[in-house]
Amino acid sequence: MNPPVKLVFALALGALAIAAAPPRRDETPSGCDPVELNLRLEHVQSVDISRACGNISWPWAYRGQVGRELTMRSYGRHHADSTFARRLAAFLIEDARIDTATEVPSTRVECDPSAAKPMYLLEFHAGKQSTYAVVWFELGVALFFDAEVPLGMEPMGDRADSVWTALAQLLDDDPLLRKEPPQAPTGAALAKLHGDDVQVDVVPDPIETVAPKFPFTAQELGIEGLVMVRVKVGADGSVQDALVIHGHRLLRDEALKAVWKWRFAPAERHGERVAAWVAVPVRFTLE
User: Domains in the chain, start-ordered, CATH in brackets?
Assistant: First the structure.
């Protein structure tokens, strides 16, 4: 007999709609783990390099089947051995300043090679562990993450030229790398990176909600808990993006399916409707 099920919605709207205060100097910001990143890239054995395209927004985050089109993609893979991989890793992180990965703004890149931009996905291999980096030359940053966890962002500065040259040597059939590298923003312009979080006067408010189903397997195993969903609400009140920040694997698909169907009264800034992110915690509870 299945255990009784109780679904509880705990809404904490606005937690992500307003830009967070900067961390104290003795704090490590979320989405930033320099120690873990250096350990991962210390003994890499190989690297795969591809063009990055699609939605370059929180590429480590899980969006479920409904949001599978809102994921980053890659094509044109090239493989390189440990010598090249370690040299490339050293160019990227040796003595580098690692900042939070969540400060990188979103962008979309066409997957048509004729409309490609110089943005590359690196997959570093060390045993069974993979560490990814999106190298965004137009912005001059490298964004590091594993399959579902952000590890940090590095403003490449002058080292971008070394990374560009290394990639050009390996990807000798890539016409973008035959050109001069794009000029990335520097100084104050680079310091203005703030991701997609914006200050708003009125946070989004749900006006139409759909209850998620409690997965049968989770019921059978007695699994309950909280799934935290990060939702981007458009100026028209529709859900434009939804991804899991954390939550049990057996619960997160149903939480996402439900939240994708919600509608909101949109955020407002200076009297105008604007797109904004909000946090939607959904708790699954067994009785």
Answer: 5-18+198-286 (3.30.2420.10), 34-191 (2.60.40)
